[in-house]
Amino acid sequence: MLTHLEIRPETARLYGLNSPELVEYLSPYHHGYHSFWLEANTAIAFNAMAEKAKEAGIALAICSAHRPFERQLAIWNAKASGKRAVLDANEQAMSIKGLSDDAIVDLILLWSALPGASRHHWGTDLDVFDADQIDVKALRLIEAEYGQTGPCAKLHAWLVENAHDFGFYFPFQQGQSAVSPEPWHISYFPVAQLLLPQFDRAELAIVLENSDMLLKDAVLARLDYLVDEYVLRIAQP
Predict the structure, then answer these.
(1) Which positions fall inside the D-alanyl-D-alanine carboxypeptidase-like core domain (predicted)?
(2) What is the dihedral angle through the alpha carbons of 34, 38, 44, 50, rounded to the nearest 10 degrees?
(3) If we measure between CA atoms, which residue out of 94, 89, 115 comes closest to residue 104?
(4) Could you list the pLDDT tens digit for every one of the 237 residues in the chain?
(5) CB-count burial class (<10 Å; 0-12, 13-18, 19+) for 114
């Protein structure tokens, strides 16, 4: 039986949400008990899609779903402090030593969202992989894993052909989003399209101002541009 959880207050404030519901989705492809939180409608649609993928010999599995603000903040601060690799547009690790704060912010945003501005906060967006072809512990979430010879190539090709039948699509695509292309990141459009227009950048500024986010001043000084470029500019189905 699925258990239920309301989206955290930070996310509700940023999107003007009235107690939306997340459900706990138990993964059949992880060792032991492992679950993810998904928006309720997204969970139903994903489960149907996973069952269909299974008929094609694909073990459609989740490696990341809903993330609370604190988790996204931890990812951001690890990159901003140099404790976690920062990749350029070609997925090559970059040294941030000597770079300006603005340059570091721009590099991080190629692959990681601002805390409070991640689509993963909604529970509608998932990172997925083929659990029959690669173990989640070996997964790096790089394009080569989803390309022609990668372990998730069959999965990606299947999603391109079939995901729209279940309401999912790829929001980060070459030339259509400032965020680098992510062939592992799918979004449940019927719900996500309702959330994005509600995004409140003024609330985001307040949340970030009151957080312990690194590079805070550089982000707040360009917040309108960063929201326009990295939150609102996405691919359409």
Answers:
(1) 37-190
(2) -50
(3) 94
(4) 345 555 566 666 676 665 568 899 998 888 776 899 999 999 999 999 999 999 999 999 999 999 999 999 999 999 999 999 999 999 999 999 999 999 999 999 999 999 999 999 999 999 999 999 999 999 999 999 999 999 999 999 999 999 999 999 999 999 999 999 999 999 999 999 999 998 899 999 999 999 999 999 999 999 999 999 999 999 999
(5) buried
C-alpha 139/C-alpha 116 separation (Å) is 25
Global confidence as pTM: 0.91
Q: Reduce the DSSP state of residue 14 to 3 states and report it.
A: helix
3-state secondary structure of 182: coil
User: How far is residue 44's CA from residue 175's CA, in Å, rounded to a whole number?
Assistant: 31
CA 153 to chain centre: 19
From the CB of residue 84, how many other CB atoms can be counted at a distance below 10 Å?
Answer: 14
Bridge partners of 38? 23
Q: Which two tokens stand for residue 154?
A: 């069959």
